Amino acid sequence: MSIKSKKILASDDFFTEKVRLEAEFIDFEKKILEANEHLVNIEESLQKMLALSEENQTVYFLQRVKKLHVAFHTLRHHKGYNKEDFDPIYHVLNKIVNEDKIEFLDSALKNRIAKVARTLSVSEDKPSRSKQEDLSGKDVFTSFVLEGTHFLVPKLPHRILKNIPAFKSKMMIKKKVVPLFPGPGFVLSEDSPKENKKKVLVLKLDSTREEGFYFDRLEEDWAISKESILSLLKEEKTNGKIMGKIRRKGIHYHLIRVGGK
């Protein structure tokens, strides 16, 4: 091969890499800009939680928010994006639970609990515009736990049945057959002792169809955009009802397909 031919090939290779490099930079820039928006939102939430804790003089929550603040800035400073780097944040978040809201009520406020309860009731009946806007473009899911495994189903009109033998494949409700998830073989079989009973979340799919899901406890609802679901979902092929799993706060949630096999 002549020197001229080698130089032409080298030139082609060089500019091929240049095009590839440019594409990588464009993609990298997009991800950085998206990440910056997330960082700003995280910082705003932390500052609001900090201000609320200080304003209400609740040392219990103030200490936890400060730990979150330190963990977040450590993560940001070290630019650590491995699972271990996020675990301290999730550890603190998991300690902040709804049941501890009473910590916000100091001795001067405890005699106003009834008034606060009425205010909260009105707020729940008439959501503010900002809350409605927060949910725009997002899908809402019901989260539940069964035998230590976390699941997600679309939030639909539902009812809860108690003391249902586990784990049946179906049940009769008002002369209608209602399929049950996860069915036999999840942990127990249909031959298991009758005293092993669970609660069942029955979703109304439409005017004629319902579907039931065994659960031990319900968790807080999720609101997440379809784009986020697609980016976070890892497909699973072990069960036709499971679309995949999503990792959040260090926990894997299995997304269930409703209304089909």
Describe this structure in words.
The chain contains six helices and twelve strands. It is an alpha+beta fold and 261 residues long. The chain has two domains: 3-125; 137-256, no CATH class. The strands form two sheets. Strands 1, 2, 8, 9, 10, 11 and 12 form a seven-stranded mixed sheet that branches. Strands 3-6-7-5-4 form a five-stranded mixed sheet, with no helix packed on it. Strand 11 (242-248) and strand 12 form a beta hairpin. The radius of gyration is 25 Å and the shape is flat.
Which characteristics define this entry?
single chain; 261 residues; alpha+beta; seven-stranded mixed sheet; 6 helices; 12 strands; 43% helix; 26% strand
Which SSEs are present, and which pair or pack?
Blueprint: H1 3-55, H2 59-78, H3 83-95, H4 113-125, H5 129-135, E1 138-146, E2 149-154, E3 158-165, E4 170-173, E5 176-181, E6 197-204, E7 210-215, E8 217-218, E9 222-225, H6 226-232, E10 234-235, E11 242-248, E12 251-256
Parallel strand pairs: 2-12, 5-7
Antiparallel strand pairs: 1-2, 1-8, 1-9, 3-6, 4-5, 6-7, 10-11, 11-12
Q: Please, what is the average pLDDT?
A: 77
The helix tally amounts to 6
Radius of gyration: 25 Å
Regions with little confidence, pLDDT below 50 for 5+ residues: none
What portion of the residues fall into strands of 2 or more residues?
25-35%
The biggest beta sheet reads: 7 strands, mixed
- Which class do the helix and strand fractions yield? alpha+beta
Task: Report, as a whole number of angstroms, the end-to-end distance.
Answer: 62 Å
- The tally of structural domains comes to 2
Order of SSEs:
HHHHHEEEEEEEEEHEEE
Shape: flat
**What is the number of E strands?**
12
Which percent range fits the helix content?
Answer: 40-55%
